[in-house]
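Operator note (shift B, R.M.): manual run for Glutamine--fructose-6-phosphate aminotransferase [isomerizing] requested after the automated queue skipped it. Running by hand, logging everything below so the morning shift can see what happened. Input copied straight from the record, untouched. If output looks odd, do not overwrite the archive copy; leave it for review.
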Amino acid sequence: ITAEKAGFDHFMLKEIHEQPKAYRDTMMGRISEDGKSITLKEIGMTAEQIRGIQKVHIVACGTAYHAGLVGKTIIEQLARIPVETDVASEYRYRNPIITEDTLVIVVSQSGETADTLAALREAKRNGARVMAITNVVGSSVAREADDVITTWAGPEIAVASTKAYTSQLIAFYLVGLYFAQTLGTRDEQYIGEVTTALLQLPEQVEALLEQAPVLKLIADSIVKHNSLFFIGRGLDFAVAQEGSLKLKEISYIHSEAYAAGELKHGTLALVEDGTPVIALVTQEELAEKTLSNIKEVKARGAHVLGVTNHSNHEEVAKSVDEVFSIPNTLALLTPALSVVPLQLLSYYASLALGHDVDKPRNLAKSVTVE
Ligand code: G6P
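Run finished. Output pasted below as returned.
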C-alpha cells in the first residue's frame, strides 16, 4: 500500500496533525468509563509482581530515549519506584545492575532498533522482566518482551519522529497510573484528575495546531542563525532535548539543550548578541528559577522565545522577546503539549531552508545496525 500524504506537503506535517488521533487511539479502552481506573490487559504482571519491582530501567534510542526521560518522571511521581533512563547503545556496556526485581522498559517506535533489541536481550539474560512500548505489532521487540504496550500512532513515515514520541508519552502516563493504582501510591480521586486531563489533550493539541502560522514566522527568523539553545528545568528540560534533536535532524542547524540552571557552568560563554534561545517555562514550581536563567541569557544579548502555558503567559512575556503559550494542563502532562510547537518550529525551519523534510541526510527511520 502506498502511504498517502492526505493533502499535506510532507509526511512529517501530516503526522504532526495526526497526534490528536494517536493520543485518542492510544488511550482507547485503557481508561474506565468513570475515568477512575486504568485497564492494561497487555500487562501480564500480577499485583504481587508489580509490588515486587524494586527499580525500573528505561532503555531506548533517539526520540524514544527522550520519551523515556519523561517516562522516568512519570513513573517516579506516580508510582514512587526509582527509575533510570539509558540510551540503549550505552546500557549494556556499563555493566548495569539488573536483577530479577528490575523491570526494564524498552521504548521503540519500530521495534527493530538493534541496540534496543540487544538491551532487551541483555535484560532478559539477567532475569529482569521486560516491558516494551512499541508502535509496531509483531516487531522483534514486541515478540521478545514479556509485556507489550502498543502505541496506536499508526505508521510513521517521516524520519523525524513526532506522533510516535507523543504516543509513547501517553503510554507512559497509562503505565504510571496503572502502577499507582496497583501500589496504592495514588488514590482514585487523583487518578481521576489525571485521566480527565489526559482525555482533554487531543483537543488541546488541535488548538495548538491552529497556531502553526505563528511558529512559521518564528522559524523564518531562526534559520538565519547557525546555532541556538533550548533551555528548561525538570520536564521542560526533557522536552528541550527532544526539541533540539528535532531541529538538528531536519534543519541541520546546530543546537543544544541545556538544563537551565547548568548554563552558567559553561555554555553561557557561547551566548552572543542575537543568539536564539528557546526557553521552556511550563512547570509552575520551577518557573521563577527558569525566569532568572532567561535574564542571564538576555543580559548577554540572547533573543529569547519563551514557551509557556496560558496561565504563565503574562509573567513570561515580560522577560522574553517572543512568547508562545500552550493550553493549561497538569504539570506532569505538559510534555504532551509543549513538544508540539517545537515539532512545528523544526518543520518550518527545514522547509524554509529547502531541505528534504521527510528524508534528512545521513539518517534512517530505523537503525538495525549497532
Ligand atoms: C532512528 C530514527 C529516530 C528514532 C530512533 C529510534 O534514529 O531516525 O527517529 O527515534 O531511530 O528508533 P525506534 O524505532 O527504536 O524508536
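Quick read of the result: The pocket of 6-O-phosphono-alpha-D-glucopyranose is lined by residues 61-64, 108-110, 113, 116, 159, 161, 363, 365-367 (CB under 6 Å). The mean pLDDT is 96.
Leaving this for review. - R.M.
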